[in-house]
Write a structure and sequence with these properties.
By secondary structure, the chain is an alpha+beta fold. The chain has helices at 25-39, 65-78, 93-97; strands at residues 13-20, 42-47, 57-64, 83-88, 102-104.
């Protein structure tokens, strides 16, 4: 059994990327909108294509350490099978997306080529 790293609130700012496919577009959009409304958070665009290191369609939720303790468990309870990728915003994108990253649901392989030599 794979050891799952529990999310830890150890940085100031974060992104949560809700991954989805065409069949779960409405579910993911609804989850992001609800998070924005309930927690007063900024929601990024709904990308119906891979963007950056993210190999799946995704919607981004921007949040701070202030919201971490309430938002992360809420996402876990309400994601209904969707995968959510959580990472901090430091000045090291590679570490943010690897060392400090957390997964709610199944992890996927990110395209880290833009940060690796």
């Amino acid at each position: 059994m794979k050891d799952i790293q529990r999310p830890v609130n150890s940085h100031e700012n974060y992104h949560a990327h809700v991954y989805f496919e065409s069949e779960t577009l409405l579910q993911a959009t609804s989850l992001c909108e609800q998070a924005g409304e309930q927690f007063g958070l900024r929601i990024g665009r709904v990308h119906q294509r891979p963007v950056g290191p993210h190999p799946k369609w995704s919607c981004q939720i921007l949040f701070s350490s202030t919201h971490f303790e309430a938002l992360v468990p809420w996402l876990e309870l309400n994601r209904e099978g969707l995968t959510v990728f959580i990472h901090p915003l430091t000045e090291n994108d590679l570490e943010d997306h690897t060392t400090y990253a957390y997964w709610l649901g199944d992890s996927v392989v990110l395209d880290l080529s833009e940060w690796q030599g």
